Request: fold
Amino acid sequence: MKTTFLPFVYLLISLTIAGCNSNANKPAAKVETAGYAPLKDRVGELSQTGDWATTQAKANALQENIKKNPTDTKSRLLLAQLYMQEARITGEHPYYYPATLKILEDILIKEPNNFEALAFKSSVQLSLHHFAEALETGTKAKNINSNNSYIFGVLCDANVELGHYEEAVQMSDIMQSLRPGLEAYSRASYLREIYGNNQGAIDAMKLAYQAGLPGSEEASWAGNTLVHLYENTGKLKEAQQMAEMILLQRPSYAFATASLGRIEMLKGNYDKAIPLFEEATKKMPEFSFYEEMANCYEAKGDLSKSKEIYKKVIVMLNEDAASGHYADMELAIAYLHTGEHENALKHASIEYNRRPTNIDVNATMAWVLYKKGDYVKAKKYLNTAMQMKTQNANLLYKAAVIESAAGDKKLGQELAAKAKKINPSLQVALLGKV
Reply:
């Protein structure tokens, strides 16, 4: 079973394949000339989309170009770009990311300063959650070409994930100045959310969605992220309307189907939500759809079914980790739901050691330690998680639970009240009592 990770801003941005290399006078290194991994057949509804035939034709033509002319760098870059996009559309990351990296590494053997290859490589590293490596690769690319917005988006993403928030804002601002559009607006949205400006985040993501081509994967992604922002602020009517609009424009978009399931769950309509999650899993093998389904069963009171599904999630995550994907934070959360607290702490600690200033990682550490009954140590990580003055209702309520358990009932009640005001639909039953 394949799984998908969809970080908030790892969007594929079209780059102009131009002469950005500084290796023209260097002797060419030997590069493998055999054809690359073929396009993987889509299945189910994804095989019926209008872009599939065009994608197949493009992939075949590019493969033929490379076989005929092994020095055809442009065709290699276009094939890598196509595979990155196909990974996002199908969720077949364990297949496409290694294939993409093979193409890019072949280019970089010959042309180590090829800007596009470095930029694409850094983007794949982000999607694999290799954030420190992505920052290093992206910085090298930026030093070659500092006038391309794509690479500043990569550097914004990497800095966010590493917990370097001021640096992320700087990269986002440069990106906005170079090329305002869907990719730039989406990054501004997420940074506003991190800094506690929920309405500003919604406004920026509206701009991102409007800047995209209706029905495209990128616009659907932006629209679905807007759905999440509406959900997290209790605007369920707007969230449902947006999800339905996405599916009207792109019926195969599984994330919007899952969003409708989540909205029904937030309304307490569990028996309506579960079939929607099941439908989403048939469209795409995405681990979070199973995770959300498990949460729905837990909210419904069927704890054994929830645990059974979370065990499946753990298998999926471990399979993805075996292909080179860092999935420790996700594994930590899944192990909490199966009651394996030591495994949860093990994986949360691994991720914390990679990026100790990221607020989401610290929130995960705090929650794991709370579940283990170590409230004092949990508060240490909670303080870091709360440093950006978050207005995220879910995190605020978890903070309320931890503070109450640690003995500060008054603060716990204040935080809980704040969380419920931000999002009246918050599923407190899944989090605990204050």
Summary: The chain has a mean pLDDT of 91.
